[in-house]
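hey so i finally got around to running both of the ones u sent me last week. sorry it took forever, my laptop kept dying halfway thru and i had to restart like 3 times lol. anyway pasting them below in the order u listed, first the sequence line then the structure token line for each. didnt double check formatting much so if smth looks off just lmk and ill redo it

first one:
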Amino acid sequence: MNLLVMNARCPSFLMAGARPRQTKVYFGRSPVMSRYVAYFRVSTAAQGRSGLGLAAQRSKIEAFLNADDEVIAEFVEVQSGKADNREELWKAIAHAKKLGAKILIAKLDRFSRKVSFIAGIMEQGIGLVVAEMPHATDFQLHIFAALAQEERRLISDRTRSALAEAKKRGVALGKNAQALKERHRSQALEYARSIEAILQPMLVEGWSFTAIADQLNVAGVDAAKGGRFTAQTVKNIVIRLRMEKICHAR
């Protein structure tokens, strides 16, 4: 059996003090269960130098791998999630195609924040595996990506609107507390409606609020205020949706 040892490409300034990872590629009958090309993305060079962003992603991937799985190469990208010019990603895809491996990422939002970009990569005919969502189908990945993208848009719109109102009214905003309260209630209901389609199947299957919150966090979906989901936030959303239906039924 021939054995080739490869040094995965990783910019030295990203991994200060670290040696390139050596991985084994087997020719002939391979003893590994699955073969992966790992792709990591950090938004800034500072994140890469500190190693904190990479460490978190590596931990998720290592927790996902089975004992017989093999990561045959690693590629690290320093690029914003909004950008499509991913030189290292295209190298990773070419490498995976050549060796019959799948692309392995830690989280969907580390891959991209755009549905169109994710869809385009899937059309390359390469397997995409998300460590935090190991059993997700391509269809489910599209849904979660679309949901996350829409939520980011809503948050951005609400932020711009709030800033415009603050600039127009200044500190006098406190005089319109009731109107502001109603606006917040309306925004909360709008958000609840925006994720109802993804919540409903899990509710029908009897998932607990905690399980639903964990699934949304794994998918990289931001909660209404940009944070993480908890069982209580999911419960509040469900209550809002049910109260709306009761009001409409009257």
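and the second one:
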Amino acid sequence: MISQAGRNRATVNYLKTIYFDYPEWTPCGIGFLPATWIRYGADLEELVLSHPKVFPGFRKGSVDFRFEKMGSPLYELGRHTDCWGVVWDNIERGMDSQVAVHPLADWSNFDEWKRRLPDPMKDNWWGPRNWQADRKAMADAKAHGDLAGGGGLAHGFFFMNLYYLRGFENLMIDFATDEPLLGELIGILRDYCVAVAGRYLELGAEIMYFGEDLGMQTALPISPAMWRKHVKPVYEAILGPCRDRDVPVYLHSDGHILEIIGDLIDTGVRVLNPQIRANGLAGLQELARGKVALNQDLDRQLFPFVSPSQVADHIGEVFEGLYLPEGGLMLAAECGPDVPLETIDTICRTFERLCKLPEPQA
């Protein structure tokens, strides 16, 4: 268990939450897509400033509403090619891109593709790695009493990257037919991810963050047995060293994942960020509550279409259904540009009421 000595109050509370050690309050957060800031601008800034308990440390002017420099090219208009040769297309600035060209849609391209593999020590998804900057960021985090976070792998780092490269239908056929070349591709992606994650551990990461969408709306894309055959060994290779060093692993996954939550815990996941609609409250109560810490994603598919009071009721139902006094629950809301400001304000007020948030520190 990570020592709480020298940590700030919020970090201590976070550690108490993920280790089921009776936190003072339930951590919560609201994220906004760049498109949301672009649409609402100063009005959203004023709303955020009016809820300092939910957004501690936020300062006026800290967000460029025009986003002249996007944090990721995936949110910028046009086509963008990542380090694996996948071509992404964005048609709405501030929203995410989707894959337009799968470089391995035909296995005949495999040998040529392998001649240009990224170097995990040099190549990030969208440019060169800067280990010196990562080392400094971790040192700065520790100096401020925060956790030194690591990970360094893009959303979709393994399973999703397989179908970014092959195309979804092709990949499903590969799994079903035990395509021999699939094993080689899996090994290439695994080795890259293992090397990057291992480097962050060497640099002293105290928590590791990973994200990819393992489920679809109502089911896994492949059977649990097939997932355990092809995907779980790779997760064990990437996450297992974190588990063995007692470095907590945070994993985001959209989609239905109930059948593999136990497997994810086996591989080292301590904090899981699942979707409520895709998995259902009853399923998460049975298979996740008290077994793994949850940063519970609220129903972003609901927010744009119902009244603020219905959103408040939804948050209350999730909180009451998953809360334990010993901890293990956080709440997360992502708001796109179609979520009304009144609804965002209601989410903030509901968090303040349910989560017993402290006054922000000066």
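quick thing i noticed on the 2nd:
The radius of gyration is 21 Å.
anyway thats it, ttyl
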